[in-house]
Amino acid sequence: MGEPNWDDIRIFLAVARAGSLTEAARRLRLSQPTIGRHLRSLEELAGARLFDRLPNRLELTAQGRALLQAAGGMEEGAGAVLRQLHQAAAAETEPVQVTATSSVSLFLAGHLQALLAESGQAIAIGTSRARANLARREADIALRMRRVPEEGDLAARRIGHIGFALYAARTYMEQRGHDSLAGLDFIGLLEPERTPSQSAWFDAVAARGTTRCRLGEVYLRHRAAADGLGVALLPCFLGDADDRLRRLGDPVPELAEDVYLMLHGDLRRDAAVRAVAEALAALFRRQRRGLAGEDTAMS
């Protein structure tokens, strides 16, 4: 029997988790024939089928399930080796990688000077809603709304609470001459896959008027509201800080979201990552009232 190829194992894991060649190809950015070739190589080495080919999906065989369990341990071990090598070779000035949603990234950018000073570390901030694989060092620290499950040895803690409310440009509301939402223009969110959602709540409110557009990113909705296009749902720290905007009600309790800080267990011993994590937690503690929308009354 030959030696297993790590690329074959890596692609097998992706297919097993995706459940189809098409989705695995999209995630890995490889062609389906390439993925099929790696799977055939692994099945030849194993001397058994690893998947049953069913209509529209692949299902693991008993041999495939056994390999999945073993391969997951290999992946975690490989991740540990990469982290150790990275920590040993990293220069002191290499930035700590932080990934966050677009709204949280905007908040961090507004307080970046304080973060840099308090942590004493260089920081790189990336924007993504996807689950960063901390085990493979796609990021050192992930900040996510709601507790997002991740694979591997992860430490997670809640560090903040973000409130959301409706906002519109002061000039827009002055032109309408009334405080009612009836007949107003609305700047919608994209329709998400999950329910219940902020988008569904907002659409119910927007039924009182007209949805003029839908914008996927919070900074786009903020810009559109400030430009007078209509009413937008924004995080309170963003809307309350903009004098051009008027809040049209209190923060909506059911839309508030917790923020979780996650890092890999191994990185809790990394001084640079630990310093940034503590600076992030301290920032969210200091700004907790503004994040929740408690510092500014409706006006």
How would you describe what is shown here?
The chain has 299 residues and is α/β, with parallel strands linked by helices. Helix content is 44%, strand content 21%. It is built from twelve helices and twelve strands. It has helices at 6-18, 21-28, 32-46, 62-89, 102-110, 112-119, 170-176, 198-206, 218-226, 236-239, 271-286, 288-292, and strands at residues 51-54, 57-60, 96-100, 123-127, 141-145, 154-162, 164-169, 185-188, 210-214, 231-235, 245-247, 257-264. The strands form three sheets. A five-stranded mixed beta sheet has the order 4-3-5-12-6. Helix 8 (198-206) links the parallel strand 8 (185-188) and strand 9. Helix 1 crosses helix 3 and helix 1 crosses helix 4. The termini are far apart. The mean pLDDT is 84.
Give the percentage of residues in beta strands: 15-25%
Largest sheet: 5 strands, mixed
Counting H and I runs of at least 4 residues, what is the number of helices? 12
Side-by-side strand order of the widest sheet: 4-3-5-12-6
As a percent range, the share of helical residues equals 40-55%
N-to-C SSE string, H for helix and E for strand: HHHEEHEHHEEEEHEHEHEHEEHH
What is the radius of gyration?
24 Å
- The end-to-end span amounts to 74 Å
Number of strands: 12
What's the pLDDT, averaged over the residues? 84
**Contiguous uncertain segments of 5+ residues:** none
User: Class by helix and strand content?
Assistant: alpha/beta
Give the overall shape. Answer: globular
